[in-house]
Amino acid sequence: MPGQFEATTEVDRPVEAVFDYLADGRNDQQFSPRVLRIERVPDTPTAVGTVFRSTVKDAGMKTAREFRITDLQAPVRIRWAEASKNSVTVREGGYDLESLAGGRTRVRIFNALEGHGLGRLLVGLALAAARKDAHDFGARIKAAAEAAIQPR
Description:
Number of strands: 7
Structural class: alpha+beta
Order of helices and strands: EHEEEEEEH
Helix content: 25-40%
Mean pLDDT: 96
Strand content: 35-45%
Number of helices: 2
């Protein structure tokens, strides 16, 4: 049962700064407790084709993940797809950013999950957990971005 989860939050920082923060996937460790390690390949500014390799811990198990940036439209759109071969993967994920009054930014994150092999049985559980955490995940993005980006 493939499906999608999403979260929306408002960050008290300008859209260009929030875009730059989120486009550098190495910042994921600041708001995603499941990310144990992450690197950008190549280690140059993020562009279409950039890969983020990570080690994550899900349900007590460590797995290697590899996400490729598939679309980057500053400062409003970031898309990725998982290239790694795990039982549950992200077919497509992304951020949509919208500039709001007062130098604020609305951020929508989503991930479309799909299962492979045994993962077809597990994807429903993964989706339920992600959906249950979605609001808190959005709050963690807001807190981390506001802590990392200096106010103007």
